[in-house]
Each structure stands twice: as structure tokens, then as C-alpha cells.
């Protein structure tokens, strides 16, 4: 069977699923398509033309190279295709976004045929995805007196690729669609259990919200053809949880507009809104696509005649509606006045949605075009020896005289690119920064690879200190989907220059270690900036930002990121942690006390949490920084003492060495380079040349939170509150309850110790509790299944050396086996302990699942509906989050324990402790 016939067979199968033919990315298939186009009598010629013109992926895909070459032959008259004139061929090249298409355009523009050279030049003037090899060709041609090259460079210097684009419409008509009440998790827009299909955009689009919701959106579009559908989180925040480019892609697919008539299923310009705005990571992703994100604030706190906040009988703040955005409401966005209207009635100032920079993203169809456009303009001006005219909105630069710097302000100032020497910037300033560490995870990695191909990138930016491609999100089950996707991803990333978790040759055995743990280890400078394709990219060294797959691609390709310097909230501690408490309880209590201190307002949302963690090592401190994603913070920074940071760096060095010993370094010796950087940093701290990062004493904060350790007297549980009468208050991470609330009668169907929230000491706690129970009863039995998944192989190796793993094996009914990996996900469990493979496991929700309707008690971070556990008829699934000792004891008892039972079980156990640094 020919490749084309095999493709046709797949087309028939997809048609049965209501799908169009899959976009072509392979060179061999497109070559066969072209052969059929050339054969004017071929029975498949008409369909082949359609596939070639409308269904071939652009960028640096193998198919794009074949397509660009054939278009070149048509333009030069070497091939004649009646349906594709040379003029049309140029138009097709203009939509291919870089890589092979740029090479072809340069070949023609710098060639001998002046007529076609000028046509190629006009197309090139619209292109921005040029890399060093491309710009070097232009520079050399210009320096040798080529008039066409000079003409192109002069256009680039004026940024005509941007200035000649249509202006943003003054008025944008929208029709509202409430996707849900309360916070909308990206799981609703792009479910984790459908991660395998994310790179197949049309197929993945079928999973957004529900089929019924998709039909309702289509009906609104039919009723209001002149309006865009605005997706809304009523009484909540839009896009919380994981960093999902796929979620934004899905919203754009259903409500946006097609980026190009010649690029299938790539839509841009979605419009999303939330009562409490948009999650920071999600908003960045909306910017990537040239979309609009709006903070509606259509529900406000109710106050009495004295201005005091009114609360209900449960102590919760009562909200009242400021204006309605009920589904089907027609509104108008005015991009000039920057206000939202219902008819002539002004509803809300939405200036934050239309900053000069965001308007540029909207005009250009996305932020990438602006990032690359600025680089092209700078290059052209420098080559011509002129000053680039001010075309783009100037970066906002805020300097506060006499005000010190927060930790994040210091890091941004150190890593800033293009800022005048000696200039100090404060929060709110727009900054381009060097990115030191980049992480790509496996369920978004294929999309990152697609983005890299689309922006014509072929090698990692040399300025990046280190980058890692994980295998943790698909580590549990080596099924057909994983076998099809993961080796392909690892090969691409390895060739791009990224350290890869799995062998790029496609061999099974791998380091599936949880990405956040690896990034935490390979970050060897607390002044570093980290970008990672997951919302839990939250390091306890440096400042880390979870990002969409596209922003990760941009960081890999350019070594830079652009964003405003965020405001910070300072978190300090007072009092003393009680002996029976675990640090995880302090983490939960921080969120609870913050909400109490600020009348229910989450001051962490969209800001940096600067946590003064003092003497807590990086592994343990990560528990706090990891949870800050659930606090809706943009990122977090740990302020450590000198000796603590040195100890953390020594641990990181030893783990990087293990990666080297396992053969994971690449030809550039990136991992060895990180060890060298760690040694340099340790020397700087020890010598006093450059102590551990500290904010200035006179730094300015948005707010300060002081956590009182003395009042944390019992374990704390984050509860999804699935039966709350107010739907908007379900599945948030803001309901924090003490153990006594449950009265020893809350049944637990499954316990899970795992995910990025646990470290080595947590696994030792599991072992120690089992020893305690065995010593008391003579045996250990489980009244609910207990799933244990270590975050890394290093932890298992250390537990084996220290004797804890042997005890865990003693009471396990299942232990993972790399030689015989699971090929099917587990959804039914016995009342035993399962020692699962390192990785995300249940927390990811894309492979393993609890039984429908179960009550799960977990150490993880995810309590969203349907993530860890789905509903069943008559019973909602619920995922409650707690410390390791609470989870283990609950699995043994089959219920949440009393405080007394808990205290008895943890006697003599070395729980994760924390003592704040005394204030001077």
C-alpha cells in the first residue's frame, strides 16, 4: 500500500469520527501528493491539490520543506500547475511562517531574475520568523551591494511587517457564554485524560467542556454572526490549574478566527473573561494567540451601611451582582475607550486588557510575531547603521526613587535585556529577560515541538543554561498512545539540544522523574529565571513561571521571555510549629490565614509570593512553592539563609552527577556546566562576595502576610466542598478545614502519596507510620487502597540504601517493574499498598484514575472535578488534599482519623519541620 493510500484509509476512519483529514507533516506523503498533482490524469489529483494547498503544516516540518521547494519550482517556471500560478505560489509561501519558506524566498530574492526577485522581496517584507542563517544571508548580500537586500532591510528597519497590518477594530461585538460558575480549570477546556490528542488540534477540540456546550456555542454564533463568543467563568477565575496552550487552542477553535486559510485548525483571537479575571499563565497563553482576556468584576463584596463586609452564616463573604453577563447577552468592547458596554451603558473599565503591548499582540495575531519582529527591526537597523524608528510601544519603565527592591525585582533587573545600564526598574515595568532554565513536559511537549517547527527554530538558544524534557506525565502506563508519542518527542527534543528523560532512540527504560523535581535540582543559582510547561514550575531556587507550550518554545528558541515585573506579597512566619504538625499543614494554613486576614480577597492572585523560608532545604521548601500555583500566584521566591542555600546546591550537584552517570548529558555537556555553575555560586556565598539573595529592607510590597504557627493545632485539609449549595465555591483550593471538622466519619476510598508535592522524607514517613502500626498491632492492614509514587528514582535509590524501601516492599501488594511496564491504566484497586513507578500518577489524571465516585485523600495538588476521580450516578467524586501522615493513616483506617488518632500514629516520627528565622 502506498503512503497516500494509507493516508486515505485514515481519512475514511476520521470521517467516521466527524473529523477532517489530519494535516500533513511528513515529507514522503507530501511528495506522493505532489507527484499526483503533476500527473494531470491522476484520479486523486483534485484531492491532492486541496491537501497541498490547504492541509499541509507550515514551519520546519518535513512536509513544509517539500512544499516550499515545489512552490519555488512553480515560481521559477520549472513546473507548471494550472491551479497554482506563480503569484499564488508566493501567497502560499507567505503563510508558511519561516524555515524552508524563508530559505526559498531568499533564494529567489537574491537570485538573478530581477522580476521575481522583487516579488519575493515584497513577501519577505511581511515575514518575521527569521533566524541567524537567514539574517546572515541578507547581511552578506547587502554588504556586497545587493539592492534587493537593501530594500528588504530598509523595510524591516521601519517594521513595515507590523505597521502595514490592519488596525485593531475600534469596536468588537461579543455575545456571552457562561462556561461554568466558579473557577474554570483548564481541565474543563482541555481534559488531562485527553492529553494524547493535543497535537491533533481538531480531534482535541472535541473534548472542550461538553458536546452540548459546543452545540450551544455554535447556536450563539448562528444567532449573532457579527459577534465573537466570549467564554466566561461566572463568579470565578478563568483558566486556573495547569498551563494549557491546548485549552486556549480549543477555545480559539470554537470561538476564534482562522489564522490563515492555508493552515488547518490553527485559530487565534479567542475572547475569555472571568468575574475574578484570568489566571496569569492562561492570560499569557491568550496573548500568544492575539486574544483578549477580561477581568469582569461583575460580582462584588456586599457591604453594610458602615462599609463592613457582610458574611453568611458560614462566615463566607456575600457577593452581589454588579451587572449581568448571562449567556446570550450582547456586549461591546471598545478598544479606544477601553471599556465594556451593554448598549450605551458603560459596565466596566477594561484598560488592563488593552495596554499598548496587548494591542500590539492583537494587531499582529499573537505575541510571537511581536517578539520576533522587534529582533528583526533591531538587526536591520544595526546592519544599515541607522537608529531604529520608534514603532512599537515603548516598554513601560517604572523607577521609584528611594524605594528598595523585592527579590523578584532584583532578579529581573539582573537578567534584563535591552535596559539602559545603571537603570533600576520596579514592579509594573515591562522587561525582556534572559531565561536560564527551561522545562518541557511530556503531555504538552508535542505541542511545544509543533510551536518550534511553526516558528522555524531548529536548535536551542545558546544562552540557555539548561533545558529538560520530562517523561513524568505519561510514566504510569506504557500504552499504545505513549509508545506512539513519547519516543518521537524525545528524539525531537534531544536533537534540538534539550536533556531528555527517555532514551531518544525509543528504548523504553527512562528517567521519568517528576519534571518540577528535576528543574529544582538543575536550577543552581537563586538568581535564575525558569520557564516551564506546567503550572507547577515553581522552584525553591530562583523564580519560576509556569507557561504554555508556546512560551516554552519561545524560551527554548530565543533564550528570552517578556513580561511585566510582577508585584510581590511578602510572607513571614511567627510562633512555633507544634511537634505533631507537618510542614504541609503550614502550607495550607498560609492560604487560610491569608484569606482571613484580607476578608476573603486572595492577595496572592497574579503576584509573586516572597516566602521567607530561612533554613528549609530546597526539597522541603518546594512543598510551599509548589502549592503557590493553587494559591493562584504568578510565581514564588524562597528567601534562604547562606548555609541552607549551600546545602541545597550540594544536593543538587549530587543529583545532576547521577544524571551524568546515567548517560543523560549531551554533546554540549550541559549537565557538567550546571555543576560548574553550582560550584561557582557556592564559592561566591562562602567568600561573602555574593551572599544568598535577600530583598532590600525598604522594598515595597502589595501586601504582607504573617502566618501564625502557634494557632496551627491540627492537620489541615484542602476540600473541594463538592456539595456546597453555591456552585461557584466548589472545586476551589480555598476551602481549608481542620481534621476535627470531619468527626471521624468521613469515609476514604483511596489514599495517594505522590506527585511533585512530596519528597524523600514523605516516603520515609510512610515507612515510619507502617512501623508504628506494626509495633502496636503486630500487623498492618489497609481498609482502603494506598497508592505510593515516589517523585524520582533517586529517592527510591536513597530509600533502598537507608532500609525504608525494604519495609515498604514488605507491605506492598504491587511494585512497579521497568522490565514489564504496565500497558493498561488502573481504575480499580484492592485494599493494598501499590508502589508505583516514579512520575505524576493519579495527580495527572490522564492515565491512572480512582474509581468513579470515590473519595480520594491525596498529597497532590489537584482537586478539580474529574481530574483524579470522576463522578458517578448518585455520588460525586472528590479529591481532598492533605499531608502524607494523614493520607497514610486514612488508608489504614478507611476514613479520616480523629486528631487523637493522628497524634498517636505520628509519635516519634520525624515529620517535615520548619522554624522561622527570628526577626531582628
Automatic annotation (TrEMBL):
Its EC number is 4.2.1.3, 4.2.1.99. The keyword Aminoacyl-tRNA synthetase does not apply. GO terms for molecular function: 2-methylisocitrate dehydratase activity; aconitate hydratase activity. It comes from the Bacteria. Keywords: Iron, Iron-sulfur, Lyase, Metal-binding. InterPro entries: Acnase/IPM_dHydase_lsu_aba_1/3, Acoase/IPM_deHydtase_lsu_aba, Aconitase/3IPM_dehydase_swvl, Aconitase/IPM_isomerase, Aconitase_4Fe-4S_dom, Aconitase_B_HEAT-like_dom, Aconitase_B_HEAT-like_dom_sf, Aconitase_B_swivel. Residues 409-894 form the Aconitase/3-isopropylmalate dehydratase large subunit alpha/beta/alpha domain. Residues 7-162 form the Aconitase B HEAT-like domain. Residues 176-404 form the Aconitase B swivel domain. NCBIfam families: PRK09238.1. PANTHER family: ACONITATE HYDRATASE B. This is Bifunctional aconitate hydratase 2/2-methylisocitrate dehydratase.
